[in-house]
TrEMBL record, chain A:
The organism of origin for this protein: Nonomuraea fuscirosea
UniProt keyword terms in alphabetical order: Antibiotic resistance, ATP-binding, Cell membrane, Membrane, Nucleotide-binding, Translocase, Transport
Entry GO CC: plasma membrane
Protein name: ABC-2 type transport system ATP-binding protein
GO molecular function, one term: ATP binding
From TrEMBL, chain B:
GO process terms (BP): response to antibiotic
Family: Belongs to the ABC-2 integral membrane protein family.
Keywords, sorted A to Z: Antibiotic resistance, Cell membrane, Membrane, Transmembrane, Transmembrane helix, Transport
PROSITE patterns reported in the protein's UniProt record: ABC_TM2
Membrane topology: Multi-pass membrane protein
Cellular localization per UniProt: Cell membrane; Membrane
Name used for this protein in its record: Transport permease protein
Highest rank taxon of the organism: Bacteria
One GO cellular component, as annotated: ATP-binding cassette (ABC) transporter complex
GO molecular function: ABC-type transporter activity
Domain ABC transmembrane type-2, first and last residues per copy: 35-255
Transmembrane segment boundaries: 37-57, 69-91, 112-139, 145-167, 174-196, 227-248
Amino acid sequence: MDSPAVEIVDLVKRYGGSTAVDGLTLRAERGAVTAVLGPNGAGKTSTVEICEGFRTADAGTVRVLGLSPTRPELRARVGVMLQAGGVPPAMRCAEWLRLVSRFYAGPLDTAALLARLGLTDHARTPYRRLSGGQQQRLSLAAAVVGRPELVFLDEPTAGLDPQARHACWELVAELRQAGVSVVLTTHHMDEAERLADHVVIIDRGRVVAEGSPASLTGAERQLRFRARPGLGLEELLNALPAGSAAKESPSGHYIIEGQVGPELLATVTAWCAAEGVTADDLRIERRTLEDVFLELTGRELR
Amino acid sequence: MTTLDLTPAPGAAPFGRMVLAQAGAEIRAMLRNGEQLLLTLVIPVLLLTGFSLAPLIDVGGGRRADFLVPGVLALAVMSTAFTGQAIATGFERRYGVLKRLGATPLSRSGLMLAKTTAVVGVEAVQAVIIVAVGLALGWRPQGSFLAAALLIVLGTAAFSGLGLLMAGTLRAEATLAGANLVYLVLLGAGGVMFPLTKFPEGLRPVLEALPISALTGGLRAVLSQGAALPLASVVVLVVWAALSLALVSRTFRWE
């Protein structure tokens, strides 16, 4: 019955000659955290700002809570955190949050929200004197103070120290528990893996993969080690169980994928011994979203 | 750790409450800003006292305060509605404040209404101070208070239109420089301190068409000579207001 939090079909956005968003389709479910993951310049901010009503699409359709993004009634239902700025430099921290709260019918208690984000000691500090991380947290506070149904967070943890990052993550998890839909952009795969129910990986304005973090990274694990470059992998592949894969990427870094267990480990170390090489930094780990991105695009996420 | 009930409970505040909240923030920002206060209060009051006490300029007979108070009132309107508003709004645009406010339930018309409310509020403070200083300096006002108030409202509309026109189209730095320059030029050439009769004959029609001259001339006619509402001034101000506000609505860029 309920329309999705966000539904985007074949979205196109151009700036002059360059195409920022190139036929993008995505759906963010209600009550879920959706992460839009991609490198800088992938079209994340353009996409989100069209959903926020700041920019207009050149083609395609966008529905936010079932409505056209520019509909005025969305302003009370949707919370927005811009990537940067948006606050007068001389405005004091608490003063800004109180001002924004007065635009809503039943806002959160601003003092409690400041305390929750560790900003109480800076309540009277002008915005321009806050650290980058404090400015980010104030913007996050302003995005949720009106008790919205849907929140757009554009790179919410960019430039945050680890502690502030965790405070932000906790708040996002609490929003989700409270039934708020969250759409966030990030280029940190750990953030997407940790927070999101649904991850949409975009590159050059298009979706290259989407799904839950687990479905994207797969259940399989991988074995990695470093050794002298240019080892012949043919023999190793023959010795490994069927369905395994081995590759050298980048030079001197070896990745073995498949049923990673004691047997595979034994096969690899035996092969290393036969080749007369010592495997350095040998470890078994799960594939990350970064690996997925690298595989899909041939490029690093950052 | 504080528990917060984040359960969605969306809703916009009543329109009037939003506008008052924003207007209050704008007034606080104006009164907190040192350069703005210099422009809106210190300079007008200094000009008024300085030139009332020291006969440095020829005001063409009559009590000096009678000539100076209406001019300084007009200057105060220009400093707040035009210079101050242009600079503040230009930087709000640059810092993304207008964009961020656009994501709240405060509509653009609500924001503009809040700005106008703040400008009128600061003008009221300026008027009280200037009138008090003027009375202390021997000013004897006459004429209709309502006619003077109407001229100030029209002047505010015209200067707000011109200020927002700059703020909404130029870079913030260009607005800062331009708004100060225009302030100085209009202070000198708009009949605020120096009667227009002192300027060359051929230049006068041009100067008389300036919004500042219409406002100073109109206020002077009403408050110092007890004239009825001067129609020429009203027409000049209405034309400036209509033209500039129409252009603002077409050209203003929020980002």
